[in-house]
Amino acid sequence: MQTTIDKILQAINECKDPIKNTQSREKRDAILSELSAELIDKTREQVEGYARNEDEAKSLHWFYTRFISNKAKSSASKMMD
Question: Residue 42: which residues within 8 A CB-CB, separation 6 or more?
């Protein structure tokens, strides 16, 4: 799992100024979306537990919220429909 976490952090760090750089943001989001499939069954605490410092913890928190938590909620609501 550490390898996946390292790839996530690398993708986040490589996307400089995501608000202005749409192409870079889209590439980052595609990579993170793909990697999130590997962690979909993990809790937020498990994912954030791999952070080595506060910056990584913040990045992993953002990643979990955007790419795992939202997917899980979306999947659950689709099952109820």
Answer: 1, 68
Report the sign of the C-alpha dihedral through residues 62, 68, 71, 72, in that order: negative
* DSSP helix/strand/coil, 34: helix
| Band (73; pLDDT cuts 50, 70, 90) | low
Distance (Å, whole) CA 47 – CA 60: 7
Distance between CA 80 and CA 11 in Å, rounded?
33
What is the tens place of the pLDDT at every residue in 38-48? Answer: 999 999 999 99
Sign, CA dihedral 51-32-23-66, equals: negative
Please name the helix (run of DSSP H) or strand (run of DSSP E) that holds residue 38, with its range, or none.
helix 22-39
Question: pTM of the full predicted structure?
Answer: 0.84
